[in-house]
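Predict the 3D structure for this chain.
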Amino acid sequence: MVDRHTQALSFGSQSGVYEAARPGYPRAAVDWVLELLGEKAFTVSEGNRPLRFADIGAGTGKLTRVLREVNDAVVAIDPDPNMLVQLRAVVPGVETMEGRGEEIPLSDGSCDAVFFGQSWHWTDPLRASHEVGRVLTSDGVLGLLWNSRDVSVPWVRRYAEIIGGSASERLIEADDVRVGAPFTALEHTVVEWSMPMTAGTLRHLVSSRSPYITSEPEEKERVDRHLTVLFEELGLGKDTVIDLPYKTHCYRAHKAGGEETSRGFHIEPKVI
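Done. Predicted structure below.
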């Protein structure tokens, strides 16, 4: 059994396929989180200080590049230097640092918004909440985003059954996304979208996942064999494109006082 720490640091060996096949994030998801900051998140007014965002567990910069559409002052932080090398290649000029949610290499009150894209489930949520609260301004915002495949579509459900579930999917299915002090209770919404894929990128998506990276050769062979059967049934040739539907689960919370752990709760989904 591979431990969580090894899985969390396994992505760097596949940073190229991670960048090629992993989904990005819809701008609507980022905008929804930043609504908590008000108009200043989207407009630059004379006399106002520039805002600063942090992307923790940034990987190859899938979320970083969306944040930079809103604001140039973004720092991308990841524990794996190999992922940061790939990030700097695709998001030139961005500030990068090695670090993780429980140990953020930023000064107190230096960020207006801190985001975790597909990475909060790798943290200790109470320790990470305290650390994020430290680096946020007094009215700062925490945003947690996860991309999940829409398994209500039959072929996507079969694809998911072949490759197996993930820690993030189990967390969301159990409605157990948690933050601690100093944050208010989480708000939750869902953004639906799709990403065009080929058989090749669908395979790359699998090979970028930590359970596959750290699995035994026999398990990889089993997954590859079943994927071949599925793709043949779908009629996916080398260059055939198919839309992979996603649901981006978005959570947001304001920095506030209090000691109680806040649990995620559902509001009416806002599909954008």
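Residues 17 and 204 are 6 Å apart (CA to CA).
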